[in-house]
Amino acid sequence: MKNLPLVDSHLDLAENVTLFGCDLTLSVAERRAREKRSTGQATVSLPELERGGIAVVIATVTPGFLAADVGADFEPRSALYHTAEQAEAQALSQIDLYESWEKQGRVRLLKSVIDLEHHLQLWQADRKPGLVMLMEGADPIVHVGDLPKWWQRGLRMIGLTYGDTKYGAGVRGGSLNFRHGGLTPDGFELLKSMADLGFIWDISHLAEEGIWQGLDMNFPRVCASHANVRALTPTDRHLSDDVIRAIGQCGGVIGLVLYNSFIEPRWKQDKSIVVTLNDLARHANHMASVGGWNHVGIGSDLDGGFGREECPIEIDTVADLNKVGSVVPTEFRDAILSTNWLDFLRGSLPNTP
Ligand SMILES: [Zn+2]
Fold it and tell me: Which of 229, 343, 332, 206 is nearest to 287 (CA)?
């Protein structure tokens, strides 16, 4: 287990620095001492990723938050965007941050299979995490014609929506009233261009109609960086069995989210319910029974708007991710913790940068 390179397919690392002012170069203990929060307690930092043996992170690049999505009491107000140009500037500043971390020797940016394989060798000795950059919500792409520029900057994965974007109907937190509407004409054009350029498509946060529209185009590299099972958590933020099956059939992987209300929907009303990794295992088992064990991974989303007190009881920090391995069948443990995502990335990233 110690030398198994774990993969977390969804962490909002940059956003927590550029929008929320956290210092991810500290240990989580130091972050907690400095931030002095009673809710939303920190669970992620770069040293903590090293300590937890997390070798590869799919790290988000975000536009900030659209005012219409998050409402009037959202803080800080400086995290909001109103125009595509503001969203673009925010996303570029997050890429700048990842690049500066790389220059400081804190992370390695992974843009190709060669980068990935080289990184995995170096990781055995230095434990520095490798990051694949994922744009979560495509509003920063002002024009579809800008896509090559984003590819040049190292972006390799894109999810079209968070809430609604100009590219499609989004499901931010999800609801029982399923969101109708799929891709916009711009969304079709963006997906087509993403397919041509080599981008990976992340279907998380997209209304189901849009997912089927993209799958019907036979998009070649599809995954869900962070989503759970709709049959167990019945909102449209999670994946229907038909979508889980389709992702499996096209060789994709789905990252399980470690957020209590995504794991056990009753927890949202009753916080006294203790959510455990065994509850998460129900999602893993269901996903596997529908799509196959080779298509299940972990996309924890830790620190993605929820803190220590809102994730399963066994998880204190991201360094506890390996504990997910103890609740899945032993023969698939390495696949879920590591190799499913690594194999997907090997088959989906370009061979050379
Ligand atoms: Zn998300």
Answer: 229
Domain count, the chain: 1
Tell me the CA–centroid distance for residue 226 and ligand 1, in Å.
7
Residue 254 CA to ligand 1 center (angstroms) comes to 13
Q: Could you tell me the distance, in angstroms and rounded to a whole number, from the CA of residue 125 to the centre of ligand 1?
A: 32
Of how many residues is the chain composed? 353
Tell me, yes or no, whether 319 lies in a domain: yes
Determine the distance separating the centroid of ligand 1 and the alpha carbon of 141, expressed in angstroms. 18
- 292 lies in some domain: yes
Assigned domain for 1 exists: no
CA 140, 45, 322: angle at the middle one, nearest 5?
105
**339 CA to centre of ligand 1 in angstroms:** 23
CATH number at residue 111: 3.20.20.140
User: How confident is the model over 15-67, as pLDDT tens digits?
Assistant: 999 999 999 999 999 999 999 999 999 999 999 999 999 999 999 999 999 88
Distance CA 170, CA 225 (A): 15
What's the gap in Å between 95 CA and the centre of ligand 1?
18
The answer as to whether 103 is a domain residue is yes
For residue 217, what are the domain limits?
6-348
* Helix H or strand E encompassing 155: strand 155-159
pTM: 0.97
For residue 177, the CA-to-ligand 1 centroid distance in Å is 19
pLDDT in tens, 246-299: 999 999 999 999 999 999 999 999 999 999 999 999 999 999 999 999 999 999
